[in-house]
## 1
Amino acid sequence: MIELERNSELKNSLKIFFTNPTAVVGFIIFIIYVIDALIVQFAPWLLGIKNPNVLQENFVNPIPLPPSAQHPLGTTYPGIDLLKAIEAAIRIDLAFSLIIVLGGAAIGATLGIISGYIGGLLDDVLMRITDIFFAIPFLVLAIAVGFALGRTYESMIIALIIVWWPLYARYARAQTLSIKRTPFIDAARIAGVRDFKIMIRHILPNVLPPIFIQISLDLGSVMVIFSTLAFIGLIPNASLPELGYLTSLGLNYLQSAPWAVIFPGLAITLFALAVNLMGDGLRDVIDPRRRSS
Amino acid sequence: MKLWLFILKRVIFAFITIIGITFIVFALLHVGGNNLLLSAYINPRLTGPAREQLIQQLTIRFHLNDPIYVQYFYWLQALFSGDLGYTNTPIYSGPVTTAISLFLPNTITLTIIAAILVWIIGIPLGVYSAVKRDSALDHSVRIFSFTLYSMPIYLIAFILIIIFGIELKILPYAFPINSVLASNLPWYKDGISYPTHIILIDALIHGNLTVFWNALLHAILPSLTLALSILAGIIRILRSSMLEVLDQDYVRLARAKGVPEKVVINLHARRNALIPVLTLYGYTIASLLGGTVVVESIFAYPGIGYWTTQAILVNDVGGIMAAALIFGVVFVIASLILDIVYALIDPRIRY
């Protein structure tokens, strides 16, 4: 009986999500990006990519060429085919964003739940710490962390996780506080359930859905920020196809070859846009108050 | 809560946050090794035995052979006495404090112009997309702001450069002033203007309107980029808060009384709708400082952000660490002021 109810609830949620046209468009674009990443990972030859981890440079014809039949999106310096490079770069950017967001969410949710559930001095201290992280612009904090740990892709990932967890800590804490006040937690406590078990069994499942939406929304923002770090030259001697780095390659040809900076940038924008639209739709599913409006 | 108690509490929190920021920066310096701290305090032009001697002096001064918390204390002491070390970048070489006084005014100028632009673009768009809800205008504003929200700030800059700088050729997109014009100015050297270091004000001080106009044109694209990068959030909040206000009884009453629609919207509804927007507005303007890092380096505008990217490219410890401190401290102080101002405007915030 309960199983049936859950099923219909899921069906209902899916119906709400899929009757929202913009959310569906976002979802489809998101899936296309994921499929592209999977193809590049497992069968790069399908897209004509020889080595997905290296940009294929061509020093015979280094100057950017406009879009043509041979190069549908044109080329960028030095003679890199933009379509193939963007296809390969999506895999890298997607993977990096996923690691950063999931890492930040895991650390933040853990600390947020503990902080919100236990409360008191621990809560005060943890929240002051997140305040401090919020005060420094993330770009600057990432620059400083990246500098101390060395300027590589790995250190940039660590830097952005450090930047990102406080957001989730605040989120999870707020959610925990509101659940803590509900009677079923009191009931569990009176029944003698241990605090640790309450946090895992009762609070975590209620904290996860909004966190999940935040993760999907953040994938876009993180990709934007990560590419910005690569763009301003934080990662030297990169040969990896990465969208921000790809944009910076076309920088000197802004006047003669605008496509070289526009297309990699658009690839990021499209993804971020899709993710935002999708997240908006997901929010409608979880928060019934938003549906009516 | 009494107002003074609220202010006192905020000031203490701000102070704790600033100490926390210094701790993070110090911890990062330490992770990178003691040499990093040293190299931030050594004048790069110093070589030979004098340098060795300075290293020894600094080792004693910062107690580098003592436990970490002792080192932190002495470093903090240096910071609060205004000694932030040295920076050595292609655009400036010398004490960090001088660099800050040269570059920060430009960054603040761009931020202020951006704040004004956000206000004059964002308010009408937000208000009218709420008033004309679900119209074609509303939908295009929604698409426009969603797209802007998803764009990396550098792409916004490039699109503006390509449209206004390269295709239409109506706005300049590099440096704070035309270089030919600048070469004839006795009060402008190496991208820095004197005495206030804000070229717009300096031009007025020297009574040179041509330079003022030229500098204003040069500031438009970088400021517009900054403005567009935060516009979406403002429009969204204003739209939903305006919708809420328009639904309230006093607005309905005003309409029923036969008050002209223009007056209802501009006088009755908009004022109240702006309160939640003000909060967001203040904080996003303060957070714009991060965006200046990218924008100033694209437009070669000599502000703190441009200096930061230059410092990154040449591994300049003094510059990077100072940038992290400056951006953090400026943000904390800005939000402190905002908190106090809001408490004065809206007594509910105090509780």
Note: Chain B touches chain A through 48 residues (CB under 8 Å).
## 2
Amino acid sequence: MTQIISNRTGREKIIKAEGQNTEIVILAKENKEFIQINAEVKLNKDHQFKDEYKIFLQAYETSGNAKEPWNLGTVGKTGEYSFSFNDLNIESLLFRLKIVDSKQIIKGYADEIRPTLSGLGSNSKSNIGQNSNTLLPIRESDKIRLPFAIEMSPYNKPILLVKSKHHLKEKFKWDISTKVFIYTSSIRQILTNYLSDRNYSDCPVKKNFLDRVMSNAGMEADFDEIPEYFDKNKNINIEAVEWIEHITAGCIDTPVQFKGRTVNYLKIFEEDCIRFNQENTHEN
Amino acid sequence: MKIRKFNDEGHAAWKSFYNEVFLKIKEVANGSKISTGDIQNGYTDDLKKKYINLKNSKNLSEELVDSKDFEIKGFKNSYELGLSINKCLSSYEFIKIDKNEIWDWLSMILFDQIFVPGKIRGCAIYRYVAQDDFFSSFRHLIRGPCYSINKYGKNAKIFTYTKTFRQNDWLEQYIKVTAFREMKVLAEVCMELYYDFKKDEAIAGTSKSSDSDKPGIFPRLRNKVSQFNKVKFIWGMNADEIINMLPKEFNKYKNNITK
């Protein structure tokens, strides 16, 4: 029998993970003018939802717009539905599903449902953040004011957002100075958030991220040795700040493979700075 | 006169003009916090002449063919202004006219109503030059009111009752919360609770407070709605049903006697 989970609110959790027991399948296909969504709901009878409960599906972006929920019929009469829209970004597109009784009380719920891009399977670009092996996936966004930002939430892999239309994604790939500046700031911010925000205390993605950065820095992944961010007086603990700096430096100042050769980003950055200074001196 | 949109040259000229205004004001402020006096002194006669020249320049904009005639008058508040613009552009879908080149042309045409030295306390560029980023775009003194009136209809009054040259704090606080921004019914809830219908303005001190736990004000509503959202399908409820769910701390506002 499928495991049914409920929480303090009394809502049944709808299974969204890919697999035979998934209860919601969403396919997204991007055309030139709009995004086409096909959704299929196959609710498990173990929930014991009443036939008259209504089903609503809402599309939203992690930070930005949300659409008005679509009615997918009732538990007793649902099936396959299709919709289209043109004002959300497919790369940050998520869905939430709600099963609602006649008094508008939510009886079933699933959040942060990522669609499968039609024709691309589960490794579609919308899934890049969760499934890829990259430490810090990059996504273009028109929702940020500054050139780059970190998108983070518990249980989700941090994503480096770069301002769209600035070709920063390309620049980031090939220009080591840009990479060093952005990576330094981003890793420092992610580590600070992970250490200071209690919402991440049980987050498995946090553990994985810390594992990776400590391994990059050549440190043993000993979580007990990570200092508390706040001391007893709720002041910032200088040891934690130093630990963050140490790990960040360890990620940047380390040998990596770049364009087929072994390089150290920080060393190349330093050489670039010296060369730039020398060229300017010669011109003068 | 039909509403127009800047062409590339016009748009660049407008941005350059306002950047110059902004830098001059900062120069006058000389590193300290910008005051109303700095804005008055910084908007020099030379800049005023430049503005007139820009406004009278030909070939910097093109007409929106389906716009209705736009009558420039002294708008009492941002609601009147936004309503008037939206009516002129009613034959377009909002997404089609949500262009910086249009908002900024309107900003230029209505500059004397949205940039009033001596009365304005801020001169940030995003107020007069529409920005691409999501949140700053709502702070534009033309786009913000037009967006909210298009989205919330008459319930946008709480976001636009202020003078045309003022940024409305209710809009600022409301728009940044996704659930509120997208659920039109919550704009109605805010109107019902926090709008003084006699004075035709929001009840003072309700949009925010240094004490975010102050009973019954918007930050508390935001928290309550976030809680309700986990157990109730608010999209399917009307304003009265939502208001009735609110706890005692909201009673003062539930019994809004100004209606």
Note: Residues 133-283 of chain A form one domain.
